[in-house]
Amino acid sequence: MQLFLDILFARVNLAIVLLLCAIYILRKIIIKHFGINGGFLQKKYRFLQEHHKFLGLLAIIFGLIHGIFSSGEVISLNLGTVCWVLLILLAISWFVRVKFKKKWLYYHRGLAGLFIGILFFHIIEVGGFTSDFLSLYQAKKPIPDSSNLNTNIIEPRIPSNLTSKKFVDGIYTGTATGYQPGLVVQVTITGGAIASIAIVSHNERGPEHYSYAMKHVPDAIIKNQSTDVDGISGATKTSNGIKNAVNDALIKAVGQ
After folding, report:
1. Which domain holds residue 225?
2. Alpha carbon distance 36, 48 (integer Å)
3. Which residue in 16, 30, 145, 167 could disulfide with 253, CB within 3.0 to 4.6 Å?
4. Strands (E), 181-250
5. What phi, psi does 168 have (nearest 5°)?
6. Contact criterion met (CB below 8 Å) for 191 and 169
7. How do residues 9-40 score in pLDDT, each as one tens digit?
8. Is residue 143 part of a domain?
9. SS3 assignment, position 61
10. Are residues 157 and 122 in the same domain?
11. How many distinct helices (H) and strands (E) make up the chain?
12. pLDDT in tens, 165-201
């Protein structure tokens, strides 16, 4: 549910931003080609102007909600939070426009341009749009029947009762998708038990998103000798990726 809400509010907020840009462009077209002295067009101009302010407020609210459900902390130094702060500064610049007179508009437009630029890089940082849909699709995949475990299963889902199987000592590698594809772990089995878990490589983005999960999820798996452990709040995708990769390695350790 957290992943679904994260994606939902991210999409809604992006739609609001695009609508704000469209409204601004339409307002400029009306002013440039028709002026605002005509009765009908003046009403349209005022209508767009009022909705511009309302949508800006919605963007701040939905941006905060998106941040709460995302894999990063809201109050932290990341591009998503910077975008949200810029939205707040845009609102403030409008409220203090009387004090700054005509200069406020230059500040407002400058902040808007900076916001759009950072938003663009933020979208790239989180992997664009496809990674979110991929993660949502994988979260809906059914849990495989552990009685039919075989080495052809590349990415089992969690929770798993693999601990009911007998593991053969050795070092095994598992691969899964976290926030990005290519999360690889190395699991060491000693005395039939999980002795250590190392993250060999990954393509996760933003240490503030994944570092805590990469430290604590493997420790929890080793302590419980099971991948049926809680993930890290705010890093759900990475947490699930680690557990799936460990499951993939454990499958190879069964009956070897």
Report:
1. 149-253
2. 12
3. 167
4. 183-190, 193-201
5. -95, 135
6. yes
7. 788 888 888 888 888 888 777 777 766 565 66
8. no
9. helix
10. no
11. 8, 3
12. 678 899 999 999 988 899 999 999 998 889 999 999 9
